[in-house]
Structure to design on (93 residues):
């Protein structure tokens, strides 16, 4: 009862407590090590559970069944700065 969303994403729609196999581009990671696209398929018996993620200059996201079997989704957008920040002069104390 402490966290019903945790139980929902791990055990109701997730397969954290089941025997699973995972295949894909980088099946043991949420994001590809060098950035870009990552995809995987988690399988419990005959059921394929998809996963996709992207890590780029403007942000990162993922959606699907992660490497531990729980379902999740997240979007992080980064703001690209067009202004340059001047360097601070070195202090001489």
């Amino acid at each position: 009862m402490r966290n019903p969303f945790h139980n929902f994403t791990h055990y109701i729609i997730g397969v954290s407590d089941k025997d699973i196999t995972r295949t894909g581009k980088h099946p043991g990671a949420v994001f590809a090590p060098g950035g870009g696209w990552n995809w995987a398929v988690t399988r419990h018996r005959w059921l394929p559970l998809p996963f996709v993620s992207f890590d780029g200059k403007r942000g990162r996201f993922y959606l699907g069944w992660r490497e531990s079997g729980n379902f999740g989704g997240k979007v992080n957008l980064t703001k690209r700065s067009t202004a340059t920040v001047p360097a601070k002069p070195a202090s001489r104390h």
About this structure: Residues 4-12 form the longest helix (9 residues). Helices lie at 4-12. The mean pLDDT is 87. Residues 10 and 70 are 4 Å apart (CA to CA).
